[in-house]
């Protein structure tokens, strides 16, 4: 049971521990009472599980049209790709204002090979936004909803994404706090930058999300593993000017690193109040996946060796980044600095590189 709740938690955290089972007959099978047992002492309280699903049902985005997502039909269907979106918003509840997808990661899960791959897409990448006349930063696509965000990724990179899970920054802070914080290996520059950003009244982010009002233990400004609370972890994931060599590319690497650390902690912690944590986190999540999709995903993952690998200290994730090195440059568009592909050929190199990372080869859409 703890493993099942653990995996549901990971889904709600937009951590890539999910794979979608499409077998219609599977629905009744996984609802059988015996499937809700981890051992004789851990029976599921059905009402609590149903309450969680009811809460998630309220956050389901039913506006996404699965028949119009610009799917590449030639990609293998044994790997499931889900778009993970981190939303920068000052409202605690999702959907209360126009939101940008400032973190965009394709989570690719192959249940047969037992692999989880994360592909970060730079938020300032300048590409055609599906349905718009002009190109814009790719992080603006989610402002028009999950449908456009998925269409934009699929049409630009010849992908087959059908589902997304979005979480706002309040959710990241809440999750890390609920887990008792997270241990992260920092550079001296990173530790110093986090302290600087969180000085009282210095940062808009700290003013918006800080429920400790600045009353926290400062990080030691030296290299090494340090314990971060929720807001410190959020700032770690957002850093891009820790020193003169830092940039957005390093930021996406930190985001992937934080995801793996959280994933490992959730999978290896036997003492977490998963139901309480789930209930707390659902308010920060929006997705077009329904509870039965998620339950099918979790049951499939339970048959893998993911939890055993996490407990043995193995690296769980492989990662990739778009744009690839030497394929991009900075440019100025609409008065702002953006990242652009150097040529059409360089963009195609990224499309093929993404496919090769996920599948081992390129699958043209046409």
Describe the structure.
The protein has 13 helices and twelve strands. The protein is of the alpha+beta class and 366 residues long. Strands 9-6-1-2-3-10 form a six-stranded mixed β-sheet, sandwiched between helices. It has a two-stranded antiparallel ribbon with strand order 4-5. Strands 7-8 form a two-stranded antiparallel sheet. Helix 1 (2-12) packs parallel to helix 10, helix 5 packs across helix 8 and helix 8 (230-238) runs antiparallel to helix 9 (248-268).
Strand order of the largest sheet: 9-6-1-2-3-10
Mean pLDDT: 76
How would you sum up the global shape? globular
Strand content: 15-25%
Radius of gyration: 20 Å
Number of strands: 12
N-to-C SSE string, H for helix and E for strand:
HHHEEEEEHEHEHHEHHHEHHEEEH
Q: Could you tell me how far the N terminus lies from the C terminus, measured between alpha carbons in angstroms?
A: 45 Å
How does the major sheet shape up? 6 strands, mixed
The unreliable regions are 1-9, 11-46
Count of alpha and pi helical runs? 13
Q: SS-based structural class?
A: alpha+beta
Approximate helicity band: 25-40%
Element layout with pairings:
Elements (H helix, E strand, L loop, with lengths): L1 H11 L13 H5 L15 H12 L22 E9 L11 E11 L4 E7 L4 E3 L6 E3 L8 H12 L5 E6 H10 L3 E5 L1 H10 L6 H6 L14 E5 L1 H9 L9 H21 L5 H8 L3 E3 L3 H12 L3 H6 L6 E5 L5 E6 L2 E6 L2 H16 L7
Helix pairs in contact: 1-10, 1-11, 5-8, 8-9
